[in-house]
Design goal:
The chain is mainly α. Helices cover about 70% and strands about 5% of the residues. It is built from nine helices and two strands; from the N terminus they run H-H-E-E-H-H-H-H-H-H-H. It has a two-stranded antiparallel sheet with strand order 1-2. A hairpin with an 8-residue loop joins strand 1 and strand 2. The termini are far apart.
Length: about 180
């Protein structure tokens, strides 16, 4: 996390104390950006997660999502991190942003994250964009029957011509290559 974000969440005293104890390290990634705070060792992060428990971790993710959401980043990695954190928090993102993040995760080859994000967007909206992203993620994982079931639930007669082309091409490719 950036030093400013961690300080906003935990307080200046907590960050300073963690540095003094050697639990975290602060580094400058880019001269134009805030310093970034890292755990000094992965075991510190694991121990902290165990100490706060499932509900505490969910609360911390919610706090981060609320802190970052008003200031969207231009960096793809930041947008994917935010979307991933929001999945397991009490602060949901707009469905369109989740579906867009799912497409970006798929474009980068992160099929598991793409599936999680697309599934979340589909559960909340039932929209074609989320459905296409989920079918794409499933097909690329070799789960053609599941992808076909996701696509078969679409009423093709209600689609616009561009949407019909997107749906048809994905369904045909899935049927040809996976089924």
């Amino acid at each position: 996390l950036s030093l400013a974000d961690l300080t906003a969440l935990a307080g200046d005293g907590a960050v300073r104390e963690a540095e003094e104890l050697g639990a975290v390290e602060t580094r400058v990634r880019d001269e134009r950006a805030d310093p970034v705070v890292y755990t000094a060792h992965p075991l510190f992060a694991e121990r902290t997660l165990a100490a706060v428990g499932g509900d505490g971790a969910r609360q911390r993710r919610t706090e981060l999502v609320k802190l970052w959401s008003p200031h969207p980043s231009d960096e793809l990695s930041d947008r994917l991190r935010l979307a991933s954190l929001a999945l397991d928090s009490d602060a949901s993102q707009p469905v369109a942003e989740v579906a867009a993040a799912a497409r970006e995760a798929l474009r980068l080859g992160d099929l598991a994250l793409g599936e999680r994000l697309a599934r979340s967007a589909l559960e909340r909206s039932g929209g074609l964009t989320a459905r296409l992203a989920l079918a794409h993620a499933l097909a690329r994982q070799g789960r053609g029957r599941a992808a076909d079931a996701v696509l078969a639930a679409v009423d093709a007669t209600a689609l616009t011509e561009p949407a019909l082309m997107d749906w048809t091409l994905l369904r045909a490719a899935n049927q040809f290559w996976m089924l």
